[in-house]
């Protein structure tokens, strides 16, 4: 039983998987998140040259693989030919850039997946994502977020049942007004935990919005987010948050 009395228990989102302890956005990082007891994944997506949605943060493969080049200029076969694990630790050699579909296949159906659109490729990614979510039965358990709110509006126009979340770095008193600015129905707000004061989420929650803060890695900030009643906490260290919620901090 959780020991956070009188507080709702937040969804633990493994940010890029358990990326504090495994190479970000790889199946190894998502598997480790599951082992550590996360409830959800946050991951970043781009479109390959041949129209496959792939899971990688940057628009190039240079930082997180042994290759180089732009994601959008490479086919999925080329992208999966490079190593995405050894840069982090030699023991992860052999990890590849996953296709989004592979992460959906890895995640048990109850795991919530926050898909962050990094590069929409001039609107080409959205219809492919809608088709994939429908085909994999993931409309209910995926929240699509982006700093590019036009991309989210585009998604909602294609499929009104999709849940979308606004990502932002703003310092605001009243976050609940953001959906009006986005011009579409919004499911969740994704504020940068470092960028706003005072931290008050009662307004958005009263407006029926979920609040998922990022990237919350230290025990003190995790405790602050729990005390605020945050609905979801996006962290590189899901095991640390799980232990804190159980009252057995590492
Ligand atoms: O979705 C929250 C967070 O992932 C946004 O920033 O750069 O880590 O993708 P970034
Ligand atoms: Mg992200």
TrEMBL record:
SUPFAM superfamilies reported for this sequence: PLC-like phosphodiesterases
InterPro entries listed in its UniProt record: GP_PDE_dom, PLC-like_Pdiesterase_TIM-brl
CDD domains: GDPD_TtGDE_like (cd08563)
Domain of life where this protein originates: Bacteria
Coiled coil stretches, renumbered: none
GO MF entries: phosphoric diester hydrolase activity
Gene Ontology biological process terms, A to Z: lipid metabolic process
Boundaries of every GP-PDE domain copy: 10-245
Pfam families hit by this protein: GDPD (PF03009)
Name of the molecule in the record: Glycerophosphodiester phosphodiesterase
Organism: Paenibacillus lemnae
């Amino acid at each position: 039983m959780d020991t956070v009395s009188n507080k709702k228990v937040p969804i633990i989102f493994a940010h890029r998987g358990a990326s504090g302890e495994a190479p970000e956005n790889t199946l190894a990082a998502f598997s480790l998140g599951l082992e550590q007891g996360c409830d959800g994944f946050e991951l970043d997506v781009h479109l390959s040259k041949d129209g496959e949605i792939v899971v990688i943060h940057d628009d190039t493969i240079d930082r997180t693989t042994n290759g180089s080049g732009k994601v959008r200029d490479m086919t999925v076969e080329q992208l999966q030919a490079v190593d995405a694990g050894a840069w982090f630790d030699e023991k992860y050699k052999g990890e590849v850039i996953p296709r989004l579909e592979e992460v959906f296949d890895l995640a048990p159906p109850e795991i919530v997946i926050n898909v962050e659109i990094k590069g929409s490729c001039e609107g080409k990614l959205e219809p492919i994502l809608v088709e994939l979510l429908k085909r994999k039965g993931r409309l209910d358990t995926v929240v699509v977020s982006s700093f590019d709110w036009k991309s989210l509006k585009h998604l909602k126009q294609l499929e009104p049942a999709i849940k979308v979340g606004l990502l932002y770095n703003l310092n605001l008193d009243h976050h609940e007004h953001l959906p009006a600015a986005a011009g579409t129905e919004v499911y969740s707000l994704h504020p940068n935990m470092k960028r706003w004061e005072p931290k008050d989420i009662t307004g958005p929650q009263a407006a029926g919005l979920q609040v998922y803060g990022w990237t919350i890695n230290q025990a003190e900030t995790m405790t602050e987010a729990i005390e605020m009643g945050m609905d979801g906490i996006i962290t590189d260290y899901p095991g640390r948050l799980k232990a804190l919620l159980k009252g057995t901090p590492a």
